[in-house]
Amino acid sequence: MTLRLDSLGQRYGEQVVLHGIDLTVPDGQLLCVVGPSGCGKSTLLRTVAGLQPAYEGSVSIDGTPVTGVPDQLAVVFQDYGRSLFPWLTVRDNVALPLRRRGLPRAERREQAERILERVGLEGAGRRHPWQLSGGMQQRVAIARALVCHPSLLLMDEPFGSLDAQTREDLEDLLLEVHRSDGATIVFVTHDIDESVYVADRVVVLSPGPASHPVLDLPVTLPAERDQITTRGLPEFVALRAEVGRAVRGSEPKAPAHPDPRP
Ligand SMILES: Nc1ncnc2c1ncn2[C@@H]1O[C@H](COP(=O)(O)OP(=O)(O)OP(=O)(O)O)[C@@H](O)[C@H]1O
């Protein structure tokens, strides 16, 4: 699915958060959005997801304006603890979108088990989310997002609260899913290394109100990525530095210290 933002603007009351954003994400691209805290990244995702109507401009998917939550869209948030239902088993959490689509129970269970196996959680279907580690819970949230084979996947800092090892494992899972399913993915992260490692393209937004991206960078690394080899490539290091400079350059400057001398 091709996602297009045209002169997109968003505000909360008097506060302008996004202004005049033009961005096209071609079908199958994994776009990372990076930018200083509060610049409007989550607002951008919520607007694309149809959860907030655009204040100005438009969002369209394959040429059709987004006016509500689009079919074929799935979202993964950072806060997996709140996005899973604790009273449902892992399998029923994952099968929930299938239930909404009216699939019979046996088929729901079978598809949920298949996707759980794919995210490395075979055998966990009968447990409850609170019996799992944070990394496993986020795998459940990813499984639930994938169960309907979305063409557009929005991820808002999905690995932000996980330990380094789990985070790397889930980055690799995301790359594998992207390679095999080919969905268009918009992935918000604070982590510059992570953005370069997973993305086909990185855009850096300016401090709010975010407008035209301050950097729009194709990631020209080989498609086959590996946590050790890829991160050691000179090209990776150069891309990371370029994104880092853009993020730092876009951060508001700290106020100058007053001269303490009398
Ligand atoms: N529901 C809301 N009501 C009012 N203001 C909001 C709301 N959601 C966000 N904001 C404000 O809009 C601005 C952008 O918030 P947003 O969460 O989109 O930024 P962000 O770039 O995702 O931040 P972070 O990186 O810290 O998650 C912030 O100033 C925030 O306080």
TrEMBL record:
Residue ranges annotated for the ABC transporter domain, each copy included: 3-232
InterPro entries found in the cross-reference section: AAA+_ATPase, ABC_transporter-like_ATP-bd, ABC_transporter-like_CS, ABC_transporter_ATP-bind, P-loop_NTPase
Gene3D superfamilies: P-loop containing nucleotide triphosphate hydrolases
Keyword Nucleotide-binding assigned: yes
SMART domains per record: AAA
Organism: Streptomyces spinosisporus
KW Magnesium (keyword) present: no
Name of the protein in question: ABC transporter ATP-binding protein
Cited Pfam families: ABC_tran (PF00005)
GO molecular function: ATP binding
Keywords: ATP-binding, Nucleotide-binding, Transport
